[in-house]
Amino acid sequence: MPGDPSALTARYHAAINALDFPAITDAFSEDARYISNGVGVLAGRAAIVSAFRDYFLIYPDQVAEDSLIETLSPSSARAKWHLVATNAKTGQRLKRSGVEFLHFDAEGRIVAIEVFDDD
After folding, report:
1. Cβ–Cβ contacts within 10 Å for residue 67, how many?
2. Which alpha helices (DSSP H) does 1-119 contain, by range?
3. Which residues, other chains included, contact 91 with Cβ-Cβ below 8 Å and sequence gap of 6+?
4. Mean pLDDT across the stretch 50-67?
5. Cα separation of 58 and 8, whole Å?
6. Could you please report the per-residue DSSP string of 33-44?
7. CA-CA distance, 118 to 38, in Å (whole number)?
8. 5-117 maps to which CATH number?
9. Is residue 78 helix, strand or coil?
10. How does pLDDT run across 1-18, given as a tens digit for each residue?
């Protein structure tokens, strides 16, 4: 695999924080799955990136930080994170924290993410 899962996770999170959609898109395999209690199941890179674009139209000022990124296996990592953002339409502040498990293919692309909010 081209890269340690912790490093791949950090690079993916940096792309999100920078709103670097080409890098976000490239982070996912074509048939990736994104599973979250907040959004349900998204299947495929196009659906995942579309959901990210929609989210960041509402929360363009999101700031997320990792308190932990650890490699679990040669193809998986776990990240603990927290974020704050402001709803661009309502001005309401959003605070979230949780953990996510990322699974990578042999090319270093994300094949699955499972997100669990702390709340």
Report:
1. 10
2. 5-17, 21-27, 45-58
3. none
4. 96
5. 26
6. EEEETTTEEEES
7. 11
8. 3.10.450.50
9. strand
10. 568 999 999 999 999 999
